[in-house]
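Summary for the funding panel

The consortium committed to producing paired sequence-structure records for every protein in the target list. Below we show the first two records in order, beginning with the earlier of the two.
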Amino acid sequence: MYGKRAKKKMSWSKTQEQMIHELNGTVFSRDPIHKVFDPMSSIDVHNTNYIMELKNREKYNPQDFDGSLIEKSKYDYLKRSCGDKIPGYVCKFKDGSYWAWNLNKVNPEWYEKDLPSTTHFDRTNLRSKKIGDLKLKDGVKLI
């Protein structure tokens, strides 16, 4: 990997490590989360009780959209892959707050929306994705 793509990947990796460190220093200090080293997996971290995807929503605050969104494919993957663990979705927002959703307790209404192919690397062309909203009222503010 060279150029802008490598820089963005390193940037996400560094951001993800920082998020893990912040969460382990507060919320998960008794049961630390550990990075999953499968780049093709929607599972970013796990511990004794949870599997989770981490998202860095650096461009907006939680109140801007009353929460966040999740792609249906990621929601389905986390729910299907959790076994006896709780599938979670954790977002860090521009204001530094962390919000989490227990995917066993939310059932978003799904709709199609044109979004970037990926938020990392150079594939920012738009494509239709099936997504659902994760509302603040259904989440928990972790930090």
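The next record, for a separate protein in the list, is shown here:
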Amino acid sequence: MEILNQKERTKALGFFVLFFTLAVLVIILALMVNIYFPFKENNLLKQENARIQREMKFQDSFSFQLEKVKVAVDSIGIPQGGYKNDFFNEKLALSILADMYKQIPKDSLKNKIMYNNTILVYKELIDAKKQIKQLTINQKTLDSLSTINKTLKEEYDKMKVDLEVCKQLYQQE
């Protein structure tokens, strides 16, 4: 006794094995993806976290050094010391700014332009303070020369009057 629908049954068994194999492969693939990607994502997050921590450390260091520069720049041009420490404070601020520029990482920061602009602005501030100090000294010199000029003009006018008096006395004789 032979089975009448053996071809259909074999065909159905073949489809069953095919779909069963596909379902098992999909489940195994899902498990592998479920296991592999969290580790990969974890590694990527660790790298991102390390980069952010490096940037935070750099920001802390940058702001600490910026405070030192601020103190040095603020003490430039204070007349209490008679401008004696201006040269030292200016050179100190410029050397700290140069060190800060050298310490900027060239590859890992997002805001390199901000750090560079901050350094440039402080350098321009130092130059402006130096120029203000020079202009103040020039103004004092101009004021003293103006006073001397006024005094000499008064003496000149007195001499001129004396000369006129002498001329009149000489002509009368």
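Regarding this second record: Residues 6-74 form the longest helix (69 residues). The chain has a mean pLDDT of 89.
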